[in-house]
Known about the structure:
By secondary structure, the chain is an alpha/beta fold. It has ten helices and ten strands.
Amino acid sequence: xxxxxxxxxxxxxxxxxxxxxxxxxxxxxxxxxxxxxxxxxxxxxxxxxxxxxxxxxxxxxxxxxxxxxxxxxxxxxxxxxxxxxxxxxxxxxxxxxxxxxxxxxxxxxxxxxxxxxxxxxxxxxxxxxxxxxxxxxxxxxxxxxxxxxxxxxxxxxxxxxxxxxxxxxxxxxxxxxxxxxxxxxxxxxxxxxxxxxxxxxxxxxxxxxxxxxxxxxxxxxxxxxxxxxxxxxxxxxxxxxxxxxxxxxxxxxxxxxxxxxxxxxxxxxxxxxxxxxxxxxxxxxxxxxxxxxxxxxxxxxxxxxxxxxxxxx
Length: 313
Ligand SMILES: Cc1ncc(C[n+]2csc(CCOP(=O)(O)OP(=O)(O)O)c2C)c(N)n1
Ligand code: SF4
Ligand SMILES: [Mg+2]
């Protein structure tokens, strides 16, 4: 049975729902038994709360939800949700998630990553995952610092930012993840922040409903190592593009301009979205008959194997 999120093609169209008559799940069912180890006041809490709040609403089978993370404070996220999850390797979560989504269209696959994880060591993987449009939802926990390793500047730190690895101010210009995502061929590119959980929840739901690769950049303070980007700094600067008269998230050129704005004004919301591009999985001939795990095992006879071998020798 598929779930109808009221979208033309839902990102969870092939994910099974709870069996009819089974009790509805609540926030507690999605909360694991692990102690949350983030610092008090960390922006990560708001994202976890948003996720635990809306996942039960979907009525999906918990066993069919998977969170893949990389490395960093943010990448501890899968421990705290009572779903399947994998705390994987630095920067490679999009690659692992791609394999999973390709093999199992009955899974709701998420990537959780930090600005250091996905934009430094993982930059290459992120760009190509966006370009391929695999059906995955990615949450980029963007605190503009390496939190776990105690405060080195990250690609999204602003130029001149003083940290332990940039005592005289970072020389590199700030990386603009949303502009890169749009330029790389991203089909759903959005930003929320941990100071507005209601808006963030809406954004994440929209991202999940998108068939293809959906990126949500989430601005959030690291209260221990990034004292600049606090709630007080961010609050007067953020605004929602959907409140701007005439803003059209289908206009790629306008979205690219907007995605480069980060300073006195910081855009939030769905900057760019298109439902016109097919997901990668839909274009792979071998998957036309369904996910590989559901296809019968095909074996090659000894003669066929020998003749194939001879083609190469
Ligand atoms: C291959 C490798 N290189 C470096 C590290 C050290 N390391 C761990 S987390 C991290 C950066 C994490 O920053 P970010 O993704 O922004 O996550 P945050 O802690 O801020 O949530 C680094 C460099 C590592 N674990 N593995
Ligand atoms: S170091 Fe920063 S990112 Fe990590 S848990 Fe603490 S506040 Fe959060
Ligand atoms: Mg970070």
